[in-house]
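ok so I'm stuck.
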Amino acid sequence: MSLLVLQRSPYVGLGALAEALEARDIDVVVVDPSTTTSVDLDGVTGVLALGGEAEDGMLDGEVDLLRRAVEAELPTFGICFGAATLAVAVGGQVAERERPEVGFIPLSRTAVGAEDDVAAGWPDGAVMFAIHQHEVAGLPAEASQLLIGSDGPSLWRLGSAYGCALHPEADADTIGVWLESDVAAATVAAAGLDLEELRAENERRARFSRSAGLPLLLRWVDGLLS
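replied:
not stuck anymore, here's the structure
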């Protein structure tokens, strides 16, 4: 199988998911969203749109490719800004927050989520890391919220498309690298949080950082293989 990965930033990659994809012998094709107008979806099994800095903007080519994937009923998963782009592709709205949402946020399943193949295994109350300035402000009526807990839709589904506002792919090492960047430091400060306290919390959670988010993503990946 072939997984098309849309990666807009060299610093926001597959994280903890990379090793698991390699172990499953999945052909991963990484493309820059700015080149997506030329991407052919023939032979693609699924599409994964990663996050990145919102300053890069929402690229028309990425929105169009995600729209084509959903219209073709191709399994599609958007993470953070990738989820925001996916929301626009399916007819939703995205808005800039007054203050960024940052931190380890406890999430719980909705009634629909408890029956969903991807969300059902989520342990209610487990945390996922969030760091975003934009969020989904509206989704089509047919969309279902699967996990809730963050300010906007945490995990939602519409047809073959899943969108997650947080970072299920990010383990403690990945988050630690992010928190070393000037962009992340500015975002954390704008959220009114202390950077050193957030780093310490990440270290405390390191033992458990793969226990919920990565299995959630792998349930989606394993659905591509079935």
